[in-house]
From TrEMBL:
This is NarX-like N-terminal domain-containing protein. Residues 1-22 form the signal peptide. Residues 187-214 form a coiled coil. Keywords: Coiled coil, Signal.
Length: 264
């Protein structure tokens, strides 16, 4: 009986420990999803505005906004126990501003057929601020929880965000006739971002040591090979709808890779 009691007590401690570990990990994932969803929503707005209010991209905006809301709701529940309540509250406040501007800009496109340049510019800057707030909260969580994602997971997440940022800037250039107002929020040229992506992708590839992960990396590399040519030559025959499609698949591959790493 005593040995059974000891076993059950050890099992309970293990469950508590696993739960405590899982909570910061889930919160990190929520913050990552916010960064991706916010940037993806802006990309889809550029497509929406540049392609005469195409309903496909209006629906994609809605899905991206919902993904952000879902991640934010989860983060709000988890943040108090993980010491980043204030950081998540700051994200929420900025998100409300962003959401309002997104709705105004979508309404302008539906009702007038063209956006207000000033409001679109402001929305782009708010997206950058949102990503920065989520990134700072992510760093704070890592420090306060003493839980570090593996190098593979972190590199996958960083590359997924960089991919979204590249696609956002490319789609702005490829669909907008409003000049530079949409571009340059990341403070880097598309060429520099493409160079960084290629370098970090090679670094990630060098870390891979399983056949399944190598297959995922091969899929990413094949899609990036097409995208890279378009990104580096964005002034020649821009194909934003194809780049956006490849972006979605590449980001999905990074998330698939992350899940595979977590399962092993």
């Amino acid at each position: 009986m005593k040995s059974l009691t000891h076993f059950l007590f050890a099992l309970l401690l293990s469950a508590i420990s696993s739960s405590a570990f899982a909570t910061p990990q889930q919160l990190m994932l929520d913050l990552q999803h916010m960064r991706l969803a916010s940037t993806n929503a802006v990309t889809n707005f550029y497509m929406f505005s540049g392609l005469d209010a195409d309903g496909k991209y209006d629906r994609r905006i809605t899905r991206s906004m919902q993904r952000f809301n879902d991640a934010l709701t989860s983060a709000e529940q988890l943040s108090p126990a993980n010491g980043i309540r204030q950081e998540v509250e700051a994200i929420d406040a900025k998100w409300q501003e962003f959401s309002q501007l997104m709705e105004e800009n979508r309404s302008d496109m539906r009702n007038r057929g063209y956006p207000n340049v000033r409001l679109v510019d402001e929305m782009g800057k708010l997206n950058v601020a949102l990503v920065e707030l989520a990134s700072k909260a992510y760093v704070a969580l890592r420090q306060r929880s003493n839980i570090e994602p593996s190098q593979l997971v972190q590199k996958s997440r960083d590359l997924a965000l960089l991919m979204e940022e590249i696609t956002s800037q490319y789609s702005a250039r490829g669909t907008s006739n409003l000049g530079q107002v949409f571009m340059g929020y990341q403070g880097r040229s598309l060429e520099n971002m493409a160079e960084q992506f290629q370098t970090e992708l090679e670094e990630l590839d060098a870390m891979i040591n399983t056949d399944k992960a190598r297959q995922i990396m091969a899929d990413i590399a094949a899609k990036w090979q097409f995208m890279e040519r378009s990104v580096r030559n964005y002034n020649e025959n821009t194909v934003p709808f194809l780049v956006v499609s490849y972006n979605d698949r590449i980001v999905e591959h990074f998330e698939e890779l992350e899940s595979l790493i977590a399962a092993n």
